[in-house]
Amino acid sequence: MAESPFVTMKCPACGGALYLREGETHTSCPSCDSSVLLTGAVGNYVLPSEVDSTQALRAVRRAMESGWKDSAGRSRVSRPRLFYVPFWHISAQVQGYVLGLEPEVREEEQPRPVENPDGQSMSVFQSTRTVKRRVGVRAVEREVQLRGSVNVSAADLEPLGIPNLSSKAQMSLEGMEIQRNALPEGLEVFDSRVHADGVFVDPLVSLSEARADAEEYLRRLAGGAGRGLEQQWRYLVFTGRRDCLIYYPLWVVGFAVDGRPYRAVVDGRSGRVLRGRFPAGPSGSRYIAAGAAALWAFAIPPLVNLLATGTLDYRSGTASLNCSGVLLLIAGALGIGTWQVLRALDRMESRGGTRHV
Amino acid sequence: MSEVTGAVLLRCGECLQELSGLPDDSIFLCRNCGRAWVSGDRGLTRVGVSLWGEAGDGMVFLPFWRVEADITVHERTTRRRSVRTPATAPRDYDPLAERGLQTESGRRVLRSYLVPAVVNGRALSIGVKLRSSRPDLVPYEGSTPLMVGGSVDADDAVELSRAIAVGEEVARSDFLASLDIELHPMEVDLMGIACRAGERGFEIPGAGIAMRYADTEDRAAILKRNGLSRD
Q1: End-to-end CA distance of chain B
Q2: Cα distance between residue B183 and residue B168, in whole Å
Q3: Which of A146, A233, A240 faces B156 most closely, judged by CB atoms?
Q4: Which chain B residues are within 8 Å of A139, Cβ to Cβ?
Q5: What is the pLDDT of residues B40-72, one digit of tens each?
Q6: A60 close to A279: Cβ distance less than 8 angstroms
Q7: For the purposes of burial, counting CB atoms within 10 Å of the CB of B195, is it exposed (0-12), middle (13-18) or buried (19 or more)?
Q8: Which of the residues A197, A317, B99, B184 has an alpha carbon 20 to 30 A from that of A330?
Q9: Do A37 and B85 lie within an 8 Å CB cutoff?
Q10: Is A350 helix (H, G, I), strand (E, B) or coil?
Q11: Which residue of B has its CA nearest to A6?
Q12: Interchain CB distance below 8 Å, B123 and A239
């Protein structure tokens, strides 16, 4: 986590202390007022949260109630925490050429054999069909000139259930203002004095990794210029790169229902629940438990009787049958059956008792 | 993680005049002594600069990289404009021609390239056009003008020069199939060229070439710093 946003360096002119804020690329010396250029610095921007903790809690409560109405009343909610998760924004221009061969295709009408009404013979010229025939190839030279930008996840959000943005993975993030390419609107230059709330997550993906990832994506995008070409030859260069780090707000709300822990992630911009696990409420397991209880209720009196007398009492007749072997078999079968029912209940509870958003 | 690796005084290394530029600039021209400086990981490095054109109303000095390079074309393979398939035109079909058979190799030339040092989405086209049009520029005479917007570094300029060299081969009258080209930069320096801020873009005088505003990343800031505006 970015605990101390200030880095102390000395002014190259007067030797006085320079107090640099994270993300600054230029500064001026407070002692001598000299302009100082900071090498290796990358601009940091924040998309401030437009949702407070109360609104985040309300969103989670609504999501809870939409599944199981009683769950909100039975829940114990811990204090929502605001996290600012980092994304690299890399822009570059891709220029070059794609050369290749473009197939030339001609559409032709061809006779189609049709069966005659007598069912014995075929007529060839009664019907036609359109076929595409490759008649040759044409040399093509295409120029590629595009300026593109890519957002790359700088921290792993998978544990929160949010997919990562990368050239190999996700193309978009549903429900979030930050997407694959565009720079989101409403960015503010990161200033620790203004943006004091929340935890700023440090980027785990290095800038060079993010650049390589962005290049891979842009290369693929530029490759579109060669669509449909055969025997392609490409020459692409990447220039004018610009990078910045964007912090995006996410509220993480933890809560427990009947002792079971759950977690939800609320978008700090829209206030929508992005991802989360919620209790799904009582399911079919309740009816199975009732059935098992009824089975036991009917089985216990005759069993007690058997245990006490060792006989099955047929009240309609006079005969009495000694069934201690049968008694053991019934008791064993009931024991195994009950064990199986309890296992099934446990499985249903763990699978059906949770709702994912 | 973004790591600040050093603090560099934004002053001319010769006359200590304060340098100024746009937030993303890496090229700075000292308005006192006329020397140019490029920022990098090791601080500010001096780079040669020459100024061209005439100052005046609506004129903006923009930086360009001039790359003097030794070009070696190891192999250049071309193909026919079009080839028929054997099924439709068996007499015309030539499987070697379809793969590209005209190959030449071993050409070596010394060339000079001019590449915009401002971020422009059409830098490659502009570079190719500047190579073919060879603008007739006159040396600038007067006090050192303001020149901002330079944020393309020398390495990128060399890369772009290589792309322009490829573009020249593509622009020839035949159809290129592949190219094995090598570019060795001999000299890389800056040229400040007075461009007219026209209706649609920065016009390079004497070349008939304009860098459209729409393609120029820092157009608004460049115009603003030069006291101009274009909606």
Answers
A1: 38
A2: 13
A3: A240
A4: 79-82, 175, 177
A5: 877 889 999 999 998 888 899 999 999 999 999
A6: no
A7: buried
A8: A317
A9: no
A10: helix
A11: B4
A12: yes
Whole-number Å distance between alpha carbons of B125 and A97 = 11
A200: contact with B, CB 8 A cutoff: no
Q: Which of B196, B222, B218, B219 is nearest to B209 (CA)?
A: B196
Chain A stretch 231-260, residues whose beta carbon is closer than 8 A to a beta carbon of chain B: 231, 233, 235, 237-240, 242, 245
pLDDT in tens, A243-252: 889 999 999 9
Quick one: residue A60, left, alpha or beta (phi over 0 = left, psi -120 to 50 = alpha)? alpha
- Measured between beta carbons, the chain B residues lying within 8 angstroms of A12 are 7-9
Q: Is A97 within 8 Å of B166 when comparing Cβ atoms?
A: yes
Q: Among all chains, which residue has been given the structure tokens 């002594």? A: B33
pLDDT in tens, A103-123: 888 888 877 777 777 777 766
A155 part of contact set with chain B, CB < 8 Å: no
Instruction: Kindly list the residues from chain A whose CB atom is less than 8 angstroms away from the CB atom of residue B88.
Output: 133, 135-136
Tell if the CB–CB gap between B2 and A42 is shorter than 8 Å: yes
For residue A5, report the phi and psi dihedrals to the nearest 5 degrees: -80, -5
Cα–Cα dist B120/B214, whole Å = 9
Q: Which residue of B has its CA nearest to A9?
A: B7
Residue A127 — pLDDT band, cuts 50, 70, 90? confident
Furthest C-alpha separation in chain B: 75
Task: Report the distance separating Cα A174 and Cα A167, nearest Å.
Answer: 17
Question: b/e for B103-115, b at 16 or more Cβ within 10 A?
Answer: eeeeeeeebebbb
Is the distance from CB of B65 to CB of B190 less than 8 angstroms? yes
DSSP structure string for A197-263: SSEEPPP-S-HHHHHHHHHHHHHHHHGGGGTT-EEEEEEEEEEEEEEEEEEEEEEEEEEEETTEEEE
CB of A246 closer than 8 Å to CB of A151: yes
Please report, for residues A114, A120, A123, A127, B82, the alpha-carbon distance to residue A117 in angstroms, rounded to integers and kept in the order given. 9, 8, 10, 14, 47
Interchain CB distance below 8 Å, B170 and A141: yes
pLDDT beneath 70, residues of chain B:
1-6, 85-101, 230-231
Q: How far apart are CA B36 and CA B114, in angstroms?
A: 17
With a cut of 90, say whether residue A36 has pLDDT above it.
no
**pLDDT at A308 (0 to 100):** 75
Q: Does A1 touch chain B (CB under 8 A)?
A: no
- Report A:310-339 residues touching B (Cβ under 8 A): none
Structure tokens at A113: 């054999």
**Count of residues in chain B:** 231
**Which chain A residue shows the shortest CA-CA distance from B39?**
A39
Is the ipTM higher than 0.90? The answer is no
H/E run at residue A329: helix A324-352
Segment A97-108, tens digit of pLDDT: 999 989 888 888
Nearest CB to A245: which of B2, B43, B215? Answer: B2
